[in-house]
Amino acid sequence: MKRCLLLALVLATCAGAAAAQLPPVGYLALFIDEERSGWCVNGGGASFYPFEMWIYCLPSERGMLGAEFAVCYPTNIIQSTVTTHPEVSVEIGTLPDGISVAFSTCQLDWVWPYHQTLYVTDLTKTAVRLKKHPDPDITDYQFVTCEPGYPIEPVNLYTWRIFVNYEAGDWECGLLIGTKDSSWGAIKSMYNE
Question: N or C: which end of the chain has fewer CB within 10 A?
Answer without folding.
Answer: N
